[in-house]
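Hi R.,

As promised on Friday, here is the backbone we talked about, encoded as structure tokens. Could you run it through your design pipeline when you get a chance and send me back a sequence?
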């Protein structure tokens, strides 16, 4: 029990230092983490859009514990398109608050950069339940709303995802 408490304290310190680091190394956000399942590829019609991987401290996914989703894009996309598609996917799962959706959409538009082939974005679910977004160089922004965190990461990890095969692959075949 004491070892578990020490491990959780170490996780909190690790993520706190990452969040406040001026120069961010994306490997740092996954340091001490293990990939869960396998990398999955999102394909739309005939186009490969991105590869996605899930990392946790324990190697098991727990929605209320810290984790990282890494999306490596395989084509050029605007940050605005990524933000709009993210909100659409949340709505497909059942998110209905239009006013909050507009707030989240504006925040995502301000955070998400335009991406090109082989550009990685990292979404970190923090110990406090907020979402931080990084690229290879720095913290891009944070949305300090645990409700956003739930709906956003459920795009890929939730029971109602529009891509259940991708979810299964990310989770290592466990539902």
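Update: got your reply. Pasting your designed sequence below so it's all in one thread:
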């Amino acid at each position: 029990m004491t070892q578990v408490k020490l491990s959780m304290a170490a996780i909190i310190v690790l993520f706190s230092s990452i969040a406040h680091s001026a120069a961010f190394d994306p490997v740092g956000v996954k340091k001490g983490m293990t990939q869960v399942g396998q990398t999955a590829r999102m394909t739309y019609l005939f186009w490969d859009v991105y590869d996605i991987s899930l990392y946790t401290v324990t190697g098991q996914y727990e929605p209320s514990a810290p984790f990282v989703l890494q999306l490596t894009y395989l084509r050029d996309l605007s940050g605005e398109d990524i933000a709009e598609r993210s909100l659409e996917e949340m709505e497909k799962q059942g998110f209905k608050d239009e006013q909050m959706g507009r707030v989240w959409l504006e925040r995502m538009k301000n955070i998400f950069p335009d991406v090109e082939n082989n550009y990685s974005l990292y979404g970190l679910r923090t110990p406090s339940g907020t979402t931080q977004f990084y690229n290879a160089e720095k913290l891009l922004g944070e949305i300090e709303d645990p409700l956003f965190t739930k709906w956003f990461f459920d795009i890929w990890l939730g029971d109602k995802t529009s891509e259940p095969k991708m979810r299964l692959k990310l989770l290592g075949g466990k539902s």
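One thing I noticed while checking it: The first strand starts at residue 34 and ends at 44.

Thanks again,
M.
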